[in-house]
Amino acid sequence: MEKLYNELKTKGETDKSEQAAQLRELLNKTIRDSKEILDRADSSYKEVINNLQTNFDTISQQIEQVVPEQVKSTVKTGFDELRKLIGPKKV
User: Fold this and answer.
1) What are phi and psi of 45, to 5 degrees?
2) Phi and psi torsions of 88, nearest 5°
3) What does the DSSP assignment read for 34-87?
4) Sequence-distant (≥ 6) Cβ neighbours of residue 46 within 8 angstroms
5) Quick check: pTM over 0.70?
6) φ, ψ of residue 15 in degrees (nearest 5)
């Protein structure tokens, strides 16, 4: 795909018509906009994960204080599984 893109890019660069210039500008704008959207999505994803981890840590601490000893091992097993899904480190 990259090879095809480069071939088309090279051919397009040789076309100096107004229509070709407009098409290049539209393509460049589309690529810039796409990158910006992906960057924002990545940032939002990281923020959501960080919030989940913070909430998870808070809940874990509260459970540790409230849950009776005989139930803690069961709860801990469930939370360990959740921790694997969320990840141990902040993004």
Assistant:
1) -60, -45
2) -80, -20
3) HHHHHHHHHHHHHHHHHHHHHHHHHHHHHHHHHS-HHHHHHHHHHHHHHHHHH-
4) 91
5) no
6) -85, 110
Q: Give the C-alpha distances (Å, rounded to integers) separating 62 from 35, 49, 69, 70, 90.
A: 41, 20, 13, 16, 20
State both tokens at 88.
């141990």
Rounded-to-integer distance, Cα 89 and Cα 2, Å? 35
Determine the residue type at 89: K
Residues 56/86, Cβ–Cβ less than 8 Å: yes
Tally the C-alpha atoms within 13 A of residue 77's C-alpha that lie toward its C-beta.
4
Q: Please give the Cα distance from 73 to 79 (Å, whole number).
A: 10
pLDDT digits over 37-89, tens only?
999 999 898 898 888 888 888 887 888 788 788 787 888 788 788 778 776 55
